[in-house]
User: Fold Secretion system C-terminal sorting domain-containing protein from Solirubrum puertoriconensis.
Amino acid sequence: MALLLPLGALAQTSQFGLEYRPQAAGISNGADELPLAWTGGLNSPQFSSIDLNADGQQDLFVFERMTNRVQTYLSVPTASGGRGWQYAPEYESLFPGDLQNWALLRDYDCDNRPDLWTQIGGGDVRVFRNVANAAGRPTFQLVSNQLTYNLGSGPGGFNIRLGGYDIPAIQDVDGDGKLDILSFDFASGSYLQYFRNTSAGCGGLQFRQESDYWGGIMSCFSTCTGYATGGVACRPNGTNHTGGFGLLLQDFDQDGDQDLLLGRDGCPELVGLRNTGTAQLAATNSSSQLATLPNGLGVVSLVNYPVPFSLDANQDGKPDLVVASGLLDNTDRVSLRNNVQLFENTGTATAPNYVRRTTGFLTDQMLDVSEGAAAAFADLDADGLVDMLVANHGEQYGAPFTETNYRATLAFYRNVGTRSRPVFNLADADYLGLSARNFRGLRPTLTDLNRDGAVDLAFGATHQGASFVFYFLNTAAANQPATFNTTQLTYLRNLGNTAGDTPCFADVDGDGNLDLLLGTNSINTVGSLLYYRRNPAQPLEESFSLVNDDFGRIRMANGERPFTLAPTVTDADGDGTPDLLTIDHTGVLRMYANYRAQNGTFVERTDLVLNSRTGQYEATHLGANTRARNHVVAADLSNDGAPEVVVGLETGGLLLYGTRNRVTSTRSNQAAALALQLYPNPATTKVVVETAAPTRVAIRDLRGRVVMQATAPARRHQLKVQALAAGVYLLEATDAEGRRGVQRFSVVGY
Assistant:
């Protein structure tokens, strides 16, 4: 009987994997390539400064609120002699993977290392201390999962609860050198609560509610600039506002106390309120609300929910002002392109003078199509170079907050580079005029549907309230510029037809015909991936019939099916067999090697992307949100016989990955089915695995991580599983010839 030992989940980098490779292809909107083209876009970012690589330079931490994704950027020298921002995803795994709503870096223990403040479910505030590792780089240790406060000199132990839509000011309110908390009250969102840090010195997290009505400020719903000041209540017809607020304290007039900048959801204006009191006792009066913001700001407006951040954005040593959207979602249907504004400080740190830069901050250097980016690749102009289409979920074409003006577009990027390094230049922002067709949620793919040698365009989309997989046939001859017949809108019959359906056409059964794998959110199917077989004897629109409504039995770590799953098929690892890649709302890229040879529950691998900092493979951390509409496609962009993998994100941008350590010889039977028996199932303390030939066995969680493995081949393994957390696992057995068998089982408490 084989001995079973726990294993770490780190992969050896000699095996096949992916790596972030933005240099493999360029994207341009004009003459110059976008320096941050392949970073995934920004919808609702929060900005903080931190030295990530211990080089003495302040780098950039970005928390994307809409998808709970972390982005990290290094401060690097530029050719012009200044400094710029370089996307560095290898530092993202330094941060906790379950951040939500807001995440700000603020130094509470005065060690010049900003600590992590964030929210947890229910409105509680948790704090992670930034502790340097041996290399001087940050690590984050949880010090409080639930901050509490006292009521004056009275009882204590009350939870500090902040509204999930708010972004608080975690700053020194009273000038005593310690971080305090200012936010609107949790219950009504009407009154500013001030939690004063009463710790004896730096490093403490003891708080007292110093005021439940800081500055005498009350929010009113009469207008977007409706605030009652000086302790005056809102007018009777001005209902108190209960939405989100983003706060930043600044001393506008250099009088030694903190004034307030704030934005609110559903409103475009950034509002300024002047403190007429003191640092210790804030006050306002009828003239505190400013018609125009001071220090050169003037009128600051963003389409919806502007939130201010203070940081040295242009890296000249002085704090600038960055204003970004604070939206949790885009139910208001506004455009999220170029939604980060930069006001550079041309004055000093203590006496700023802000000048708006029309290019904004970061987003002007990215590909960003607003939300729900999805790419497809093919040579559309017959010049021998692969071109790119990029679709979005939707964008506002007209007055904001207007449902009928919110529709999807498809952009055409012509390859003006070379066969080995493409450069995709924006040639048509509304390819085929699809914006006029009122689609929503475009999920495109380019493939030869009718087998005439010319590439056709198919896409999942919602049109006039109904969702289908539509297609336009290419009426041009093979090797000629594509001409899509858009006069007739045709769709595939007999499909599930659910919003967000994502098609992938591939020969699933090896019969030479293009079948259909459809990622779906349909509640009428068991799984999230459907397999439709193609019958070439039938007309194209009626030629696909459902074979399996839970193809691969793809599940998340908790055993539930994922949302908005997107599939693509390619020979990623170079073994001569097709692999299945998927991404879903969790932001985790999954690979199912040689999926044709797998049955039942497919064996997945998630530790796919090399972290250049650690030298280990990791799962992608691209944010997790049930509303996230991510996408994946594979194409040989560099003409080297190996596919690149392009991931589209809910935040409107793309990420580019290249393959590494591909095998050069085919494996004839490595993933051939291997019969096995496993019992009992469910298990409490142990499971028994039996196979006809000696096998090595491994237990994986549903993210593909190995949690246990056997040390020697055997025909019978008795595995002690009582130490495993209750949940669903995969038992994988492999014999000496590479044949593999997999069975799902459950561990329950005892």
About this structure: The chain has no helices and 54 strands. Residues 695 and 735 are 4 Å apart (CA to CA).
